[in-house]
Amino acid sequence: MKISSIFILSISSLFILACNSEPRKLPILGSREPVEKTVDGKTVVDTIYQTIPAFSFMNQDSAIINNDSLKNSIYVADFFFTSCPSICPIMSKNLLTVYEKYKGNPEVRFLSHTIDPKYDTIPVLKKYADKLGVKGTQWSFLLGSKDSVYLLAKNGYMSYSKENDSIPGGYEHSGYFLLVDKDKRIRGAYDGTDKDQVAQMSKDMDVLLSEYHPK
């Protein structure tokens, strides 16, 4: 039987594409700076990416959470307050579905930073976590000084938080979830009130994890 040359070319093309295909990688967000360095006697240009600054906050179980606590994990960060009458309950409900998916996975963490430290004491954060059904340190509801949290939101997560007495709840903040890799670089930003974007974040988390476990 004579095999068509077009068929052979098509199969060959598919084989080449399969061999050359690479796993999808998430972009690195934030500012970046080109720097020159010497490698094997040659000058090459490398890129320094924005990373999350060092921080140290206390969670709902009075445990200290800092950069070292997260060195072997990717994580999702957001900003909220427990008495929020608008987007926070929606965000927490949506993030809970992602938490349930990765529950027990030591490579995945969740950080929710309160922007109302005066009201959101450790017992209040603990009650909030218990009501959601969150146990342990995989999802930490973090308490820090207002200045340190607001500065971290602005300089670390490209986010914002501020007091605003003209709106219900008295605080204004970003409704985004920020996906951070093990090198403390932001790899994705998702509207925490949008179920489709949260679902995409969940898929992207699988993609990010695969970077650390190549097949």
- Give the low-confidence spans: 1-20
* Count of beta strands: 11
User: So, CATH architecture?
Assistant: 3-Layer(aba) Sandwich
Instruction: Report the principal-axis shape.
Output: globular
Helix count equals: 5
Using the CA coordinates, give the radius of gyration: 22 Å
Task: Predict the CATH topology.
Answer: Glutaredoxin
Percent of residues in helices comes to: 25-40%
Q: What is the CATH first-level class name?
A: Alpha Beta
What does the largest sheet look like?
A: 5 strands, mixed
What name goes with the CATH superfamily? Glutaredoxin
Question: What share of the residues does DSSP label as strand, in percent?
Answer: 25-35%
- SS-derived structural category: alpha+beta
**Average pLDDT metric:** 84
In short:
With 215 residues, this protein is an alpha+beta fold. It has helices at residues 5-20, 88-102, 122-132, 146-155, 195-211, and strands at residues 32-39, 42-49, 56-58, 64-66, 74-80, 108-114, 139-142, 161-163, 171-173, 176-180, 186-191. The two termini are 39 Å apart.
Describe this structure in words.
The chain has one domain (53-211): Glutaredoxin. It has five helices and eleven strands; from the N terminus they run H-E-E-E-E-E-H-E-H-E-H-E-E-E-E-H. It has helices at residues 5-20, 88-102, 122-132, 146-155, 195-211; strands at 32-39, 42-49, 56-58, 64-66, 74-80, 108-114, 139-142, 161-163, 171-173, 176-180, 186-191. The strands form four sheets. Strands 7-6-5-10-11 form a five-stranded mixed sheet. Strands 1-2 form a two-stranded antiparallel ribbon. Strand 10 (176-180) and strand 11 form a beta hairpin. It is globular. It starts with a helix and ends with a helix. Residues 1-20 have low confidence and may be disordered.
